[in-house]
Specification:
The chain has 553 residues and is α+β, with helices and mostly antiparallel strands. It is built from 19 helices and eleven strands. Strand 8 (450-454) and strand 9 (460-464) form a beta hairpin. The protein starts with 15 loop residues before the first helix and ends with a helix.
Amino acid sequence: MIAAPPGQPVPVYNRIAQNRRTTWLLASLAIAAVVPFILGISFVVSWGVVARISPHSHNNRGEMRWEEDYLRNTPDIPPETRAAFERRLQDQREAIQNEQQSNSGLQTELTCVISAGLVVVMGLLFWGMASSPTSKLLVQAGAQPAGEREVEARRLLENLAIGAGLPWPKLYVIETSAPNAFAAGMDPHHAVVAVTRGALKLFDKRELEGVFAHELSHIGNHDIRLNTIVAMIALFLRIPYLLFKRELREGTARRRRRLGFWELALSPVGIYILFIAPVLAALLRAAVSREREFLADADAALLTRYPEGLLRALGKIAGAGSLVHRSNPAYAHLYFANPSASVKGWFNGNLMATHPPLSERIERLSEFHGPTAAVALAEAIEAGKDYTEQHPMVEVMELYPSAAQDELSALTVGNPLGRVYRILSHSPVPVYDQPNRGSLVQAHVAPGSLLVVFDDPGPFRQVNTPNQTFGYLDRSVKLQLLKDLIPEEVYNPELRAAAEAILPPLSVAMTAVVTKKSQPTPVAGLTTEQFVVAATLAVLTFVGMFFLLTKLG
């Protein structure tokens, strides 16, 4: 057992200021890694553009080398002919020098334009990861809302949240026999905790309490937001490497033999972009994520007053494994234990893992527990091994589409099961059989009701009503996105009623939406944020193309 220091509250969730300092330090390190990365890519692209539009200098250099070799290796050339050759070479040197000066200025300007574009891409990347609703991650993981079978687990989580001074996070269950868990949500008021079926079966009450306390520490310390920033930076720096690896894996033999491709890859700038920057990104992500894991373990031991529970949970995972097949590497830092298999690669290994080795976490917890930790740990490891033998690692995922395992899919893969919205209307709205107002009306949805909407372009939205009637909804109908709900909570009457009970009144929600969107509604159903981003990109594209046409025309 451990005791809290005198005058200090039991839940150690007063480290927000420390997280802010860590964020500033992280920002400095990120700038140090990202700035040369952006400049390197911009330089390579601008150099390629200038080389493409200025082939004259390249041809002149070839002719000059041929003529110089000819003059050097042919001593019996008449003086008049030699003088003509030399005058021609001198004129070519001056022309190349003038062209190089012009190209140098153009390349500098192109580098600035491309760098600005890459900064915008980085901002969009962060927006895509940070603003991605929690429901997307839950759906990709195959999570379901906790039901009657998980009443005790939900009550345990709620009691811990009360002791930690945090809002109650919603509990979800992932139907896989591998023991693991994760917390998601960009702030404590919109946080969720997901636990696997294997963890509920393998851990006893005190062990599960330690795991939940660990996840609550991440929520209370805002680690999810911090780690999301780290993951965004790491993914941004790894994109060229991921594309390069895909080229080697899927490219044709002709592409692999391109001399220019390999010359670029093996140049100093290419080596930094393809090798050094991804290593820096992985090290940066690992350093921050691993320290937060140690902090969460210490917080959990202090919150539960029973470090042996968390110690035994880690021991059981050491014996049983924590592999979750549907986990995406981009979100590995959110899990209690590393959910990914150990893959041999250029930038894989313990040094760059998002989680510290279980042995290090266990060793630190053993300092709290005392000499009896070794016995408890040995029993836990054996229990984990027995569990693996008796419960083969299987998953129940028939209802869910297969999730891609590539890191880029964290951005490119949408929410195939749809997202949850609330109808903001004073009267029932019709759901049509076809995407036109003259078609058959399938159903009428009451004001304030929930429904599942699919991300499809066009004047009509594809929707599923609570009774799973599929149809089309006019895009002019105002909707409110509920980021913390998944479609299953709409289709289940009890879960839907519980979700609707905690929502603000319809009049309040409509007033808030009108206040937030005081400007005219953008065309094509885009939100204000999406419209601003699209307009910004359009302006940048126009300016960039105008610049290029002006310079190159």
